[in-house]
Design a protein that fits this description.
CATH topology of the largest domain: Serine Threonine Protein Phosphatase 5, Tetratricopeptide repeat
Number of helices: 12
Helix content: over 70%
Largest sheet: none
CATH architecture of the largest domain: Alpha Horseshoe
Strand content: under 5%
Shape: elongated
Order of helices and strands: HHHHHHHHHHHH
Number of strands: 0
């Protein structure tokens, strides 16, 4: 009995040691990742690369994606779209939305590969499923312009609205433009919501939305303008009273 008891205790100690080692390794990996981010923010790209490369090669998806970005931009390394795609693909296969979106953009912009909106959309859809609103916007744009699929304005509006409600400024602008230009589901101009969405886009830094806002404001009655400004304040503040559907 004593031998069995000692064996069980020995296994427990070994298990605890293994768990402790795994925890320490995870802490080291997170520290390396954060060190790379800090170096990146300071513009020390080569240092960021050195911080990330080992953990990327060990399987860290975020580090893989960031290494891909460094190669895409030529930050700290020689620009190499082929290597960027390799790293993005690896991280995208791990399910990382950021890498899936970036890989889609590589295909859409013919960087390191032939232009293929079909493949771009495949990755944008996967990223959108993982709540990448940048990719949701790109799906809307593909429907709007007929890129990789048949032009479909109602579907474009649908995806722009999803991304707009998440706060994505470019989607807010495109949604406002479509509403003002009578490209919505009713094929009637909606200056009220065009004014709201263009104003929200402007507050998020989308300067092209200013023209839509000004045109919409010109045709709104005073009472509608007051109501629209109240809605903008509620939505910009994340107020529960904000209703995007009205």
């Amino acid at each position: 009995m004593r031998g069995i008891k000692e064996f069980i205790i020995g296994c427990a100690v070994a298990l605890l040691s293994t768990c402790g080692l795994m925890s320490a390794l995870a802490d080291d990996e997170e520290a390396a990742f954060n060190a790379g981010l800090a170096a990146m923010q300071r513009g020390h790209y080569a240092m960021a690369y050195r911080a990330w490369i080992d953990i990327a090669q060990s399987g860290n998806a975020r580090a893989k994606s960031n290494i891909g970005y460094l190669y895409e931009q030529g930050f700290g390394v020689s620009q190499d779209y082929g290597k960027a795609m390799t790293w993005y693909s690896d991280a995208a296969d791990d399910g990382l939305a950021e890498a899936q979106h970036n890989l889609g953009m590589m295909y859409a912009n013919a960087l390191g590969t032939e232009e293929s909106w079909g493949r771009a959309l495949l990755w944008f859809r996967r990223a959108a499923e993982n709540e990448s609103f940048e990719s949701t916007y790109m799906i809307g744009l593909s429907y709007y312009r007929g890129l990789g699929q048949i032009e479909d304005k109602p579907s474009a509006l649908h995806y722009f609205r999803i991304a707009a409600e998440s706060g994505y400024a470019d989607a807010q602008y495109m949604l406002s433009y479509m509403l003002l230009a009578a490209e919505g589901p009713t094929l009637k101009a909606d200056p009220f919501n065009a004014y709201v969405w263009s104003s929200l886009a402007l507050e998020s830094g989308q300067v092209q939305a200013e023209e839509v806002r000004d045109l919409a404001r010109m045709v709104l009655e005073k009472d509608d303008l007051l109501r629209a400004n109240l809605k903008i304040s509620e939505c910009a503040a994340g107020d529960a009273a904000c209703d995007y559907t009205n």
